[in-house]
Amino acid sequence: MIRVMLPYHLRKLAGVDGEVTLEVEGVVTQRSVLDALEARYPVLCGTIRDHDTLKRRPFIRFFACEEDLSHEPPDQPLPEAVTSGKEPFLVIGAIAGG
Asked: What are the mean pLDDT values of the chain's consecutive 10-residue runs (98 residues total)?
């Protein structure tokens, strides 16, 4: 069971409270987690990844185990702590400005 934490605005859009739990078949990667998330909550399609390219949208960041995974390859396996459910996969809305 994969635990996913979404920012408030995406939780509100998906109609969920707190973290989301997902079943992911095969190797657990950013891509497989986001595919499962969008399959379960189709309203999130295009909010985290671009509709056409499936690349991470600007101002969205991915974290796990206190590491920024935003620039890691989307098919790289996630840390064991995430795949075992000990730690959540975090989708964070980044803030720009000074």
From this structure: 96 96 96 97 96 93 96 97 97 81
Separation between Cα atoms, residue 57 and residue 55, nearest integer Å: 6
pTM assigned to the model: 0.93
Query: For residue 26, what is the domain's CATH number?
Result: 3.10.20.30
Helix (H, G, I), strand (E, B) or coil at 37: helix
Instruction: Decide: helix, strand or coil at residue 82.
Output: helix
Q: Which residues contact 32 (CB under 8 A, 6 or more apart)?
A: 24, 25, 26
Domain that holds residue 13: 2-93
